[in-house]
Amino acid sequence: WLTSVKTRSFLASARNMCCLLETVDSINRNHQCQFENMPSNTSITKLGILLYFVEL
Description:
91% of the residues lie in helices and 0% in strands. With 56 residues, the chain is mainly α. The chain has one domain (2-55). The longest helix has 29 residues, at 2-30. Mean pLDDT is 62; it is low at 33-39.
């Protein structure tokens, strides 16, 4: 029972994560010149998203 609940919430958060990643991706494209000066910034963002994802 607990596993199915976790799986459902995991799938729901996976959908949210896809939306978030798409948003981050579009922001990165819109502010490409800013991000070129700090390449580690996007890596940190993605790492933060991954860590958040793992914690769920």
